[in-house]
Amino acid sequence: MGKSELALALARRTPSEVIVADSMQVYRGLDVGTGKPSAAERRVAPHHLLDVCDPVETFSAFEFARQAGRLVQEIHARGRHAILVGGTGLYLRAFLKGQLSAGGGDPTVRARLRSEAEREGAAALHARLRTIDPASADRIRTGDVFRLVRALELWEGTGKRPSALRPGLWGPPQVPVSAFLVLMRDRVELYRKIDGRAHRMWEAGLVAEVQALLLAGYSPSLRPLQALGYRQALSVLSGRLDETEALAEMQRATRNYAKRQVAWFRREPAAEWIMITGDDWVEPLTTSILDRLEGKDLGTASQGARRSALVSGPAPGHSSGSGGGLP
User: Fold this and answer.
1) I need a labelling partner for 144 at 20 to 30 A (CA). Which of 5, 76, 87, 110 fits?
2) What is the DSSP letter of 47?
3) Which of 16, 37, 98, 31 is nearest to 64 (CA)?
4) Which residues make beta-bridge pairs with 205?
5) How far is residue 71's CA from residue 96's CA, in Å, rounded to a whole number?
6) pTM for this structure?
7) 211 burial class (0-12, 13-18, 19+ CB within 10 angstroms)?
8) What domains lie within the chain, and their CATH numbers?
9) What is the DSSP string of 138-172?
10) DSSP secondary-structure letter at 295?
């Protein structure tokens, strides 16, 4: 989509560090299918919250908000700007809201619920959720163990229905930012970018990456391996699909995901939407942003107190979306 290109262009023009707001790029070993920044891109500016946990671990929006908030303070203390880049909308929302009211949850309750799901089946958890919160049960697929566990964990930890907690995500931001930009393309161009990037990931060895993860002992049922691209690669390795069919399914699913991302960010009250087209938009937009935001301490290092910036938008790459900013 262009969020990383914009962030790097800003970093070349003003002293900055990048905080990655991507729920898949936090995992070690998941590189090709998540579109992680290259070594050359990381040399332009330090990147944070990449490769912070193994695929068997859980990294929540609450944990992202906690760590991102700490990093912003540290980056500002170094006299630099913080640029949040990524498309995981819930991560950005948690950061803007000053974390989520439900907190980080209870690992003991989570482990118990997961054991129950393994023992009794996801359908049993879904039925329990329906008795507690029909609205949440309608939104969550019967087989989505991760979200079922999270919803029941929220209920047990707060005594509130998860559907009652959701509206609080969309209140005014509580964290000041210099800009919250959502990059958008014409739908035809966006879908062309999505299809092309998926094809490049396939050619770069996505199937081999997944095979290496399985050989390392990771279960194919892990949530990160059910993300877009990874689950299609698993289908090839299991013989369910050939590579042509799997790539087409990945492209189709990613286009559908981009539609949902647009709907998510449309509800974000702080977002400024910017339509981009072609390949020559980065430098003009960078200049425009820096000129416009000089009064908000986004320009030179001598301008005083620093704030963060966010850059986001529907992502052509994988299941976690795109976004970003300068706090």
Assistant:
1) 87
2) E
3) 98
4) none
5) 14
6) 0.81
7) middle
8) 3-97+181-201+255-325 (3.40.50.300), 101-170 (1.10.20.140)
9) HHS-TT-HHHHHHHHHHHHHHSS-HHHHGGGGGS-
10) G
